[in-house]
Write a structure and sequence with these properties.
The protein has 70 residues and is of the alpha+beta class. The chain has one domain (3-68). The chain is built from two helices and five strands, in the order ββββααβ. It has a five-stranded antiparallel β-sheet, with helices on one face.
């Protein structure tokens, strides 16, 4: 899955695979997490959010099955 680097106080890069509905987030501390069953429509909202960190805390954290991969 391709990730794109972003400017955020919380996140370093973000990526999404629509075929598997998987969101991939790399945090500034180096941790990489996958979030499963993530709706594609929410990906577009997240991608265009002014503050991706606030969006993550409000809409993603503890809302979807997750797994640390790095």
């Amino acid at each position: 899955m391709d990730r794109k680097d972003i400017e955020s106080s919380m996140l370093r890069s973000i990526g999404y695979d629509p075929d598997s509905s998987t969101l991939l987030l790399e945090f500034n501390n180096g941790a990489v997490w996958q979030y499963f069953d993530f709706p594609e429509s929410l990906w577009y909202e997240f991608e265009s959010a002014e503050s991706k960190g606030k969006f993550f805390l409000r809409e993603i954290k503890n809302q979807y099955p997750e797994s640390r991969v790095g």
